[in-house]
């Protein structure tokens, strides 16, 4: 059985979350590379600042897309809850004899 460090598990979790948020694999790799560069003691030059600005814009776009997706999912949950409630009530009232979960 394979064993992962805590840091590796955090990275795997982040990769899965970013993938679910709509990031492409190459974007995720770039974000990890950039994160390592940001944490290093090297100074940022103007080119790096432009890259950071571009990445900030990408992250902001994905953030907004994720928020919209959450809203759509919440609407789906409400619809499913109503359907479930109607089915439970129909079963209780005997309108759907023979129907099981």
Automatic annotation (TrEMBL):
Residues 1-34 form the HTH merR-type domain. One of its GO terms (molecular function) is DNA binding. GO terms for biological process: regulation of DNA-templated transcription. It comes from Stomatobaculum longum. This is HTH merR-type domain-containing protein. The lineage of its organism: Bacteria, Bacillati, Bacillota, Clostridia, Lachnospirales. It comes from the Bacteria. InterPro entries: DNA-bd_dom_put_sf (IPR009061), MerR-type_HTH_dom (IPR000551). Coiled coil: none annotated.
């Amino acid at each position: 059985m394979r064993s992962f460090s805590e840091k590796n598990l955090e990275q795997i979790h982040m990769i899965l979350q970013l993938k679910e948020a709509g990031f492409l694999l190459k974007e995720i790799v770039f974000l990890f590379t950039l994160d390592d560069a940001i944490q290093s003691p090297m100074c940022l030059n103007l080119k790096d600042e432009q890259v950071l600005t571009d990445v900030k814009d990408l992250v902001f776009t994905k953030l907004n897309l994720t928020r919209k997706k959450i809203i759509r999912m919440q609407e789906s949950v409400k619809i499913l809850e109503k359907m479930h409630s109607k089915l439970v009530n129909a079963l209780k009232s005997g309108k759907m004899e023979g129907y099981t979960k």
